[in-house]
Amino acid sequence: MASQIEQLHFLVVPLMSQSHLIPMTDFAKLLAQRGLAVTIITTPLNAARFQPIVDRAVAANLKLRLVPLKFPCSQAGLPPGSENMDTLTSPNQATQFFQASSMLQDHLEKLVSGLEPRPSCFVTSNAVPWMAQVGRKFNIPTYVFNAISCFSLVCSNRIDSMDEELFDSEKPILLPNLPHRIELTKSQLPRSIRKDSDKLDGLLDQMKAALLSAEGVLVNSFEEMELGYVEEYRKVKKKTWCIGPVSLCNKELLDKFGRGNKNSVDEHRCLSWLDNRSNNSVIYTCFGSLCHIPTDQLIEIGLGLESSNRPFIWIIRETDYSPEIQKWLEEERFEERNKEKGLIIHGWAPQILILSHPAVGGFLTHCGWNSTLEGISAGVPMITWPMFAEQFYNEKVVTQVLRIGVRISVEVGMKRGGVEEKGEVMVKREEIKRAVDRLMDEGEGGVQRRERARELEEMAKRAVEEGGSSHWNMTLLIQDVIEQMKNRRGPIQEDMDRPHPVRSLHPFSAQVASHG
User: The whole model's pTM is what?
Assistant: First the structure.
């Protein structure tokens, strides 16, 4: 099999969003560590963000490269530089962003037609449905990488099969035939699958069709954590492989620190601050790359953390660091009066580096799946504050299935990740303090949560090691691609069997050339 692996070339096409780009880049590294050649398709802005990761991989003799395609911002009516969902200035631009993404299809097809070595398969985000057409055109198997859990996939499948009239009110609805008793209200469903969703309906239908037509489905999770839900989803898609947590491929300090974007804090300052705190004492507070939080709510978060009287790290997203919040921080001298117990980071933070530090004892999170899984992989209990998308599902995983977290008791999601009415506050400082106190409680409940979190951390690490379930599932994926190559005989596949000089791209170097 070793000689066959050396001939494989995986083409990875993520959605241009940190929630997809980060785990799919980690996935690409895992493939390259198996000796495969991997090309990641992205855009110039995202290539600049992720190039340091690729450079380190190339320095380690891995066959990994980035190829950027020009993103058609102006053609889709987007401002220049709108190449990642975290650069959008309004939630209303999401539809235009997906339109721009679909416009990449022609450019990608031209690239693939001259790309050498020829791709053995495509691995794409579940949110890039047009890749199914590219796969059919070139007779190349397409696999879908899901940036959500099997639990969320099963919940969505159950809701799709239910009578829409059940969700006409805010009465909790029991989802049928699940391993656990899971209830959701209409407001807790992702907007994309609510029965009153409109603009993205066509895209969602395409995504579902692409998922069902894919050769296989990859899930950033591990079987031991949600075994019953893996089995349930395999009834929908037989070839479903859990291959995570992919973030655990980052073992070196630089890999943990330089991941996804340029950090807004010096690594030595961050580590030094954590080194001076007691084990399991720090609350890490971060709400991801897409959650827009208004000033009044940010103030409540800050005051809630302060009143908990525990050391904390608080990440304020760059786009949320408005003149208003800056003025409040300065006038209240918030950072100065909390300099002994608080570290505030304005912008991007090295999340897995922070979470893996022994000083961190709790994670206040928006329940994005990447963050949730990174918290699980670090053995850190969580305070759950879901805001949009499938985050209420992830809260159920943390609090009901795994029982390693406490709810902050938010019942309604934000509108596509942002509160639109000025002055609206969903969670008061007292509720934040109460949740922190409960999570960090030294009583029996708190001790049991921490023990379960540590057990899950060990399970996650074993899953990705050689002989573990996720490591084996990666092997099954590779074997499946080899089998697909044998079965899909044709001009492209026969051409793949012959050695080629590389013409269109420098062979798996860190060199980046823009196409399209």
Answer: 0.91
